[in-house]
Amino acid sequence: MDMKVKNWSGTIPRPVGLIIRQKDPNNLEMPFDQLDDFITPTELFYIRSHFPTPELDPLSYRLSTGGAVRRELSMSYADIRAMPSRSCIATLECAGNGRVFLAPPVPGAQWELGAVGNAEWTGVPLSFLLEHAGLADDVVEIVLEGADRGAPKEEPKPPGQISYARSIRRARAMEHDVLIAYQMNGQDLPPDHGYPLRAIVPGHYGMASVKWLTNIVAATQPFQGYWQTSDYGYWDDSDGTPVRRPLAEMHLKSQIALPRVYERLQPNRPYTIFGAAWAGDTDVTEIWISLDGGASWVKGDFIDPINRHAWRRWKYDWTTPPRPGRYTLLARATAADGCVQPDGHNPNFGSYVIDHPLPIEVFVTSLEACPGS
Ligand SMILES: Nc1nc2c(c(=O)[nH]1)N[C@H]1C(S)=C(S)[C@@H](COP(=O)(O)O)O[C@H]1N2
Ligand SMILES: [Mo]
């Protein structure tokens, strides 16, 4: 499964570390051309935080479980660490990943391709706590709340300070792969990724995986909080009437990691186009590449096997065109449920769910013609 891409020509310095989209709170993205490994190294995993990272002392930390339960729970970090654990590999993608590709430009962090990563998460299944607490029959959702607080800047603004909170449906919360995680890639969570505890909801956009988790609330009504309605919501169609719904599962998507935007390639040379594809609650089954801006498509090969909720890296062995010029590359995935990535962005998702094939423009030019290289 290990594949290092050998394309890197050494002519362009490769960026080191995460790209800053916003400093304070930290919003950093991975330079996606550094997609080498199936597992994203923790130091290259994007960070998306709405408020400053709370400093939490693991000794005084409590995780409480309440709402419509038979038994309220209050656990220490040590209690959680002592419970039976499991690990799962899951790709997290921020729902706004790729926003910089939208035209006209939209507000929000201008993510390119790197607000996505794939990590191994270890923790206690949320279902373990919920079974222990005993859910009332009429519970419909589980609300997950973090310790971070602040005042959102986007309209409509809620009054005063709020904490970051999201809900997931009861049935999803009871599946064993939804974790209260304390480790990422075999190490305790770094502060920016939710130390000491965070939720991991595989298959959902990143916003569901609440960091610095302090409260779990069993709710008998759908949760209507800010991050569930105003933000991270979209317009669905209910028999001709637009209705607001919370974003949930990630949409099928693929991205090209190499070449990178505006990379210069030599004519008539072998070049391996490389990228990754992922989906929410289905498996990615095919990857198609276009070398001519979408006029025709060729099939690529997967590097990684199917592993539900984890991305699959893919490649296509290309011979660059003999004729110098500007070429637009696209990748489009197909999934087991029959889904294909759409042609364009659906405006009902606002500045989220950028799941259409993203154009990567490259220049085919002989090196002599490139001053500075
Ligand atoms: N408490 C809390 N949890 C949060 C967030 C946040 O701002 N506060 N951001 C969410 C969003 S929008 C994403 S995409 C993921 C990002 O997780 P990461 O920073 O570990 O990559 O965390 C989610 N969990
Ligand atoms: Mo996000």
The CATH class label of the largest domain is Alpha Beta
* Count of alpha and pi helical runs: 4
CATH architecture of the largest domain: Alpha-Beta Complex
Portion in beta strands: 35-45%
Strands across the major sheet, in which order?
Answer: 5-4-13-8-9
Query: What low-confidence regions span 5 or more consecutive residues with pLDDT below 50?
Result: 1-11
CATH topology of the largest domain: Sulfite Oxidase, Chain A, domain 2
Question: What is the mean predicted local confidence, pLDDT?
Answer: 94
Write down the Rg: 22 Å
* Count of individual domains: 2
Sheet/helix structural class:
mainly beta
Which ligands occur here? Answer: the ligand Nc1nc2c(c(=O)[nH]1)N[C@H]1C(S)=C(S)[C@@H](COP(=O)(O)O)O[C@H]1N2, molybdenum atom
**For this structure, what is the CATH homologous superfamily of the largest domain?**
Oxidoreductase, molybdopterin-binding domain
Q: Which geometry do the CA atoms define?
A: globular
Outline the structure in words.
This protein has about 375 residues and is mostly beta strands. The chain has two domains: about 20-245, Alpha-Beta Complex (Sulfite Oxidase, Chain A, domain 2); about 255-370, Immunoglobulin-like (Sandwich). Helices cover about 5% and strands about 35% of the residues. It has helices spanning about 75-80, 125-135, 170-175, 225-230, and strands at about 20, 25-30, 45-50, 60-65, 75, 85-95, 115-125, 140-150, 160-170, 180-185, 185-190, 200, 215-220, 235-240, 240-245, 255-260, 265, 270-280, 285-290, 300, 300, 310-320, 325-335, 360-365. A five-stranded mixed beta sheet has the order 5-4-13-8-9. Strands 6, 7, 10, 11 and 12 form a five-stranded antiparallel beta sheet that branches. Strands 17-24-23-19-20 form a five-stranded mixed beta sheet, with no helix packed on it. A hairpin with a 5-residue loop joins strand 4 and strand 5. It is globular, with a radius of gyration of 22 Å. The model is unreliable at about 1-10 (pLDDT under 50).
